[in-house]
Design goal:
Blueprint (H helix, E strand, L loop, with lengths): L9 H14 L14 H10 L13 H5 L2 H14 L7 E7 L6 E6 L2 H21 L13 H15 L12 H4 L2 H9 L5 H12 L2 E3 L2 E3 L12 H9 L1
Parallel strand pairs: 1-3
Antiparallel strand pairs: 1-2, 3-4
Helix pairs in contact: 1-5, 2-5, 8-10
């Protein structure tokens, strides 16, 4: 239509969210889901890894992509209306590299990965304004190599010191969900996104044909799980 303005790109919307979050560090965002439109979901799809194993439905990227826009439009409508039902994650166990101990890894369906990525894209600009500068895990444009470099520099400045390594055992498996909800709600009051985050925690786990519903934790391997863990940590 002549004279009609083009919709703002996803990056511009994210910058707007980040600017508001930085300007109002105590504000809880009552409405974020209006940013999630078809363009947003297409971007989320492109940001989602496609080379992973399929989830419980067995659907591959090639199959989903045959009718990509129709599939994403349907996904968007279900997510916003509350009709979306989060499928259980398929659990496998991978070696930890320390003896015979393994780490449980949850594999969401492709569609669930895309929706989780879309939600992360809305929440991340807010949380990145709040997180401490000393936090490096699972954050955009940050890496373990950067953390080691900063640590090395601090040790050199001190002329030597003791270093203590602490590992939170089974961190993702033991996050207390009531606390996680309370922490998330400090900055996010959007009913659609809060409802989705609860659905992912309640979706359950499918392992060797048996479905269980853990009472704590967030599935390790889920796209949204690292962000929720960082909110909890902060």
């Amino acid at each position: 239509m002549a004279g009609a303005s083009e919709p703002a790109p996803v990056s511009t919307k994210q910058q707007q969210i980040a600017a508001l979050a930085k300007q109002a560090p105590q504000m809880g965002f009552p409405s974020l889901n209006h940013h999630l439109d078809l363009i947003w979901l297409v971007e989320a799809y492109h940001r989602t890894r496609k080379d992973g194993a399929p989830g419980v439905d067995g659907q591959t990227d090639q199959e989903y992509g045959l009718a990509l826009l129709d599939n994403l439009a349907t996904l968007l409508e279900r997510a916003k209306s509350g009709a979306y039902r989060a499928p259980p994650v398929r659990r496998v166990h991978i070696p930890k590299g320390t003896g015979h101990e393994t780490r449980p890894l949850g594999i969401p369906t492709l569609e669930d990965k895309v929706l989780q990525r879309a939600v992360v894209m809305a929440l991340e600009p807010i949380d990145e304004q709040d997180f401490r500068d000393c936090s490096y895990g699972f954050r955009p444009r940050r890496s373990a190599h950067q953390a080691v470099q900063v640590l090395w520099q601090q040790v050199m400045d001190l002329g030597g010191c003791w270093l203590v390594e602490v590992d939170i055992r089974k961190c993702f498996d033991t996050l207390e969900r009531a606390h996680r909800r309370a922490f998330l709600r400090q900055r996010v009051r959007d009913g659609v996104l809060l409802r989705l985050s609860d659905k992912w925690l309640q979706a359950g786990v499918l392992e060797e044909g048996e479905r269980t519903h853990p009472e704590a934790g967030t599935p390790q391997g889920g796209v949204v799980s690292p962000l929720l863990a960082n909110v909890y940590l902060h």
